[in-house]
Design goal:
Organism: Peribacillus asahii
Protein name: GapA-binding peptide SR1P
Bound molecules: zinc ion
Number of domains: 1
């Protein structure tokens, strides 16, 4: 199982099917919390 991690706060965003255990830091996708923060800053 793979895990997608928010690069801003290291929170788990989502899981995806994978043959091995892997972690991906998301550059384009942030967790809902960080998305809210980014929206306020912009
Ligand atoms: Zn985050």
């Amino acid at each position: 199982m793979g895990t997608i991690i928010c690069q801003s706060c290291d929170s788990t965003i989502a899981h995806f099917e994978d043959e091995k255990v892997s972690i991906l830091y998301s550059h384009s996708q942030k967790c809902p919390s960080c998305n809210a923060t980014a929206a306020e800053e912009n």
